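Propose amino acids for all 486 sites.
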């Protein structure tokens, strides 16, 4: 019972949690496998942001029950946000689940699996079930271990991108290369803060992740230094409200917030070449953070800046503490510092009470901000949130119409931005082989995916790539290395 497969639903924070669980399990003697049909334990790390995400995980767990009937020793575990949100009530719908672990208890998974294995070996007659969703002080400090591909042959590194809606599950699986040894991982997520105190009316995260809790700055910097020593070149700092990092634990120094102080320290690590972060809140973009984009050379000119709505009335109903004018000012300020800034955002259409006029204000601000990428969601009721009790729920067909309007605008924006890159030379961090067998792939500083021919030895290097072709989603180009074969 030592072969474990982890399937992850949801955001980059969930991906990071899964990676940490995998590292802790491997240190305990478990094997992390890439084939779910070859595992003894299946762990589903779940998302609760939207009902669809929960239903996908519940459906998967129900399907696995058939496998457990054939093999009673097969273990099914549910981790993360849905486990935290529903707790032991999940056992009513999924009686074959053995393990339910909440968001503050990921570090307990190895102990719980050890206990389940011991019960099996002791010949327990009744099924042993473990539900652990209690809060735990200091739990934010436990997500610090990494399992990179070079640590375990056959286990790959860079996690698959995850849709913030939780609709695209991904797994800890292998990445093909030209040789038998696993390829190095050059990008990594680093969790710096967990929990949220914002209480947005639509959001379940404060319930599933708890109050804001920040890790010590020295520990974060040490983790980044260790990753740099292991070949990681790009760090993405993660938090539910990442820009709130350390606001209760550290002093502002010379007008510089704790979060910007952390950015400065990561920027000073010699092996790290690029820095990103997600997910921020607009209120975190004070003058010091805006200015950091002009003076920290490793901080990429890419910002994920959730808007949610362009209507002041809807923003108040959402309990979002900014106006459309303040939001637009942040965008303009960032573009003044970095004219080539790339922007992505989150938008909710069809929030309760959203009128045609409210949506038009959102559409107009969406168009004015000229986003390069966006996660556009149709509002879905999440029980336990204030918005679930609001009247004037918007019909599904209206939500879909508004969703499609913004998606078309986004496609036009992306095509227009990509067209401006044709014929230019972009700095690309080579991450590894692409998954379509077209060659190698990497990202620009603006987070655009680029495909090109290259050699394995360039993985982890920053290389110039001339862009010669573009689709809506990706760029294609050729290396411009004088005197060097691709």
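Proposal:
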């Amino acid at each position: 019972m030592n072969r474990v497969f982890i399937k992850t639903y949801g955001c980059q924070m969930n991906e990071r949690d899964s990676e940490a669980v995998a590292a802790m399990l491997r240190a305990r003697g478990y094997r992390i496998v890439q084939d779910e049909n070859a595992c003894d334990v299946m762990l589903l790390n779940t998302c609760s942001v939207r009902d669809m995400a929960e239903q996908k995980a519940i459906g998967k767990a129900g399907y696995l029950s058939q496998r457990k009937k054939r093999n009673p020793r097969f273990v099914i575990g549910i981790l993360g946000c849905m486990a935290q949100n529903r707790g032991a009530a999940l056992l009513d719908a999924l009686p074959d689940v053995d393990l339910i672990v909440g968001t503050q208890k990921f570090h307990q998974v190895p102990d719980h699996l050890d206990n389940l294995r011991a019960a099996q070996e002791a010949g327990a007659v009744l099924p042993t079930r473990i539900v652990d969703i209690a809060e735990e002080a200091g739990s934010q400090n436990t997500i610090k271990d990494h399992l990179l591909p070079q640590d375990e042959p056959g286990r790959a590194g860079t996690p698959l991108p995850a849709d913030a809606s939780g609709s695209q599950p991904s797994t800890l699986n292998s990445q093909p290369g030209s040789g038998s040894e696993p390829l190095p991982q050059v990008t990594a997520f680093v969790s710096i803060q967990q929990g949220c105190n914002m209480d947005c009316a639509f959001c379940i995260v404060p319930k599933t992740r708890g109050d804001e809790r920040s890790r010590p700055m020295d520990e974060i910097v040490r983790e980044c230094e260790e990753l740099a020593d292991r070949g990681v070149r790009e760090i993405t700092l993660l938090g539910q409200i990442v820009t709130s990092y350390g606001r209760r634990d550290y002093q502002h120094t010379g007008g510089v917030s704790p979060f910007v102080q952390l950015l400065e320290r990561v920027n000073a690590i010699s092996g790290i070449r690029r820095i990103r972060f997600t997910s921020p809140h607009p209120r975190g973009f004070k003058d010091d953070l805006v200015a950091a984009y002009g003076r920290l050379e490793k901080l990429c000119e890419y910002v994920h800046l959730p808007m949610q709505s362009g209507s002041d009335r809807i923003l108040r109903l959402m309990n979002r503490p900014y106006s459309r004018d303040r939001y637009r000012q942040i965008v303009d300020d960032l573009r003044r510092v970095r004219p080539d800034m790339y922007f992505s955002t989150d938008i909710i259409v069809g929030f309760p009470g959203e009128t045609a006029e409210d949506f038009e204000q959102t559409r107009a601000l969406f168009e004015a901000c000229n986003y390069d990428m966006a996660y556009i969601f149709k509002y879905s009721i999440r029980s336990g949130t204030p918005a679930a009790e609001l009247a004037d729920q918007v019909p599904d067909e209206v939500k879909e119409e508004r969703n499609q309007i913004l998606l078309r605008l986004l496609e036009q924006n992306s095509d227009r931005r990509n067209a401006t890159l044709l014929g230019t030379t972009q700095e690309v961090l080579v991450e590894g082989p692409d998954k379509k067998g077209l060659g190698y792939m990497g990202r620009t500083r603006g987070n655009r995916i680029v495909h090109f021919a290259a050699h394995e030895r360039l993985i982890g290097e920053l290389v110039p790539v001339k862009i010669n072709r573009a689709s809506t989603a990706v760029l294609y180009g050729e290396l411009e290395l004088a005197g060097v074969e691709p």
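DSSP finds 13 helices and 20 strands in the chain. The longest helix spans residues 396-421.
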